[in-house]
Amino acid sequence: MVNNYKSVWEQCLKIIRGNVTVQQYETWFAPIVFESFSTEKNTLLVQVPSSFVYEYLEQHFVGLLSKVLAHCFGTNVRLTYRIVTDKSHNLSQDVEGEQPVQIEQQPKAGVNKSPSMLDAAKPQEINTQLNPKQTFANYIEGNSNKLPRTVGMSIAEHPGKSTFNPFYIYGPSGCGKTHLINAIGVRCKELYPQKRVLYVSARLFQVQFTDATRRNMVNDFINFYLTIDVLIVDDIQEWATAGKTIDTFFHIFNHLFRNGKQIILASDRPPVDLQGMKDRLITRFSCGLIAELEKPNIDLCIDILNSKCRRDGLKISNDVLRFIAETANGSVRDLQGVVNSLLAYSVVYNCNIDMHLAERVMKRAVKTDNHPLTVDDILERVCRHFNVTTQQVMSRSRKRDYVSARQMSMYFAQKYTKMPASRIGQLIGGRDHSTVIHSCTAIEQRLKVDKAFVAEVTSIENSFKLKRQ
After folding, report:
1. DSSP per-residue codes, 36-93
2. For the purposes of burial, counting CB atoms within 10 Å of the CB of 254, is it exposed (0-12), middle (13-18) or buried (19 or more)?
3. Higher pLDDT, 76 or 290
4. DSSP 272
5. Beta bridge partners of residue 167, listed in sequence order
6. Residue 167: what pLDDT?
7. Which residues neighbour 113 within 8 Å (Cβ) at sequence distance 6 or greater?
8. Is the pLDDT of residue 23 over 90?
């Protein structure tokens, strides 16, 4: 008799399989184990692997279960779950379904149809949240990103079918992580339009989860993410202190990974440095491929700048491009911001993009840890000290104060900027590199023998420090 009831349950599973997605069936129904059926109590007992599965079935599929059980076992069947609480010690807990199985009205004569297809929730099209402008076509390859870029393209072409799952990318801010993970998602959606691809920041995921908790809709929140084929999460280091968010993502991660769905994660640090993240999640992050994105070197920065200039129709000399690349500290965001600013200046003021304009823009657009001085900064302070104007220093006049301020400016420019002598000379009155070298030598020689002059130079340097604070 037990075998007969077990075969009835197997018939139930066949009907359920026809009313849910393959993913839903494999996740929630395939793990259910038939235990027994009591004719006296009209109760079906099944075993589920965890309380999470029990809660999800009760929340999302109780209606479907009611219809199927009424069709196969008869009306007024009550469903009881045996939840495994400790596998190692073979401990479990029996819990009756929160809602009794509803009585299914028997169909009228002449319309007796098997419920081989019931009303099933079919996943709807979603907004991928991807940036269509961030593609592989404009993601310039260099030594610092060659491995992550190559792996990313492979994943986009074969999502969930490679050993690179999950794909964990980390690197400092501005190195191109967000662009790369977006490019993977955009390419994957182009190749597989039917796949559900979603990009989400860790902060937005946490906000969504908090809102779902407040509205008592956590199961709906989880159910949505369980339908994703390619899940891309950015800046996961922001979950460091979000315990409940981490626990929820753990269940989502397990489900997607177990069902061969692609997971792509980005962070500013490797998994082992994710403070506050639980070990069980860190080990899962590390089981696929961990790839580091380094800051682009100067050559790659120049390639990125050239690419953006071509797209924006800008003409910038090689010297100016190299200056921008050297000053941006390897930040792709800074490079893009500088080019956008140069474009705006050139259009509004109808001027050429030269070194002087680049310096002004870099000063305002690029933030660095030590706030390096520019030639403009140096000229301003030196001119104030000598009570002369910038135009007088730039002039060809040999007046003593003008020459002193000019030589002092060249000396400080060589000391505090990364510019070669030829570039410093161009910015300070259009002089050649030999004039700069002579000026610096003259200042250095005087510092060795003139204590009053040392105090004067120190005073000007202190004014630089005050400006930089």
Report:
1. EEETTTTEEEEEES-HHHHHHHHHHSHHHHHHHHHHHT-TT-EEEEEEEEETTTTEEE
2. middle
3. 290
4. G
5. 264, 289
6. 92
7. 107
8. no
pLDDT grade for 309, boundaries at 50, 70 and 90: confident
Please report where in the chains the tokens 């199961």 appear, as a residue: 219
Contacts of 156 (CB under 8 A, 6+ apart): 136, 183, 184, 185, 187, 188, 191
What the block records as the tokens of 289 is 């491929």
User: Confidence band (pLDDT; 50, 70, 90) for 418?
Assistant: low
Here the tokens at position 1 are 């008799």
Q: Rounded distance, CA 390 to CA 395, Å? A: 9
DSSP 25: I
**Confidence check: pLDDT of 46 > 70:** yes
Residue type at position 205: F
Question: Angle at CA 438, nearest 5°, toward 433 and 443?
Answer: 130
- Give the span between the Cα atoms of 76 and 101, in whole angstroms: 6
212 vs 174, higher pLDDT:
212
**Does residue 170 register a pLDDT over 70?**
yes
Q: Span 168-191, mean pLDDT?
A: 89
- Tell me: cis bond preceding 271? Omega within 30 of 0 counts: no
d(CA 46, CA 34): 5
| 269 φ/ψ sector (left φ>0, alpha ψ -120 to 50, else beta) | beta
Q: How high is the pLDDT of residue 263?
A: 93
Q: CA dist 288 to 160, 263, 278, Å?
A: 11, 10, 17
CA–CA separation, 458 vs 239, rounded Å? 48
Separation of CA 140 from chain center: 18
State the Cα–Cα distance between residues 459 and 440, nearest whole angstrom. 18
- 44: exposed, middle or buried (Cβ count in 10 Å: 0-12, 13-18, 19+): buried
Name residue, tokens 């479990």.
92
Pair 130, 182: CB distance under 8 Å: yes
Q: Which two tokens stand for residue 92?
A: 């479990």
Give me the count of residues in the chain. Answer: 469
Which tokens is 81 given? 């779950």
| Spatial CB neighbours of 462, under 8 Å, sequence gap ≥ 6 | none
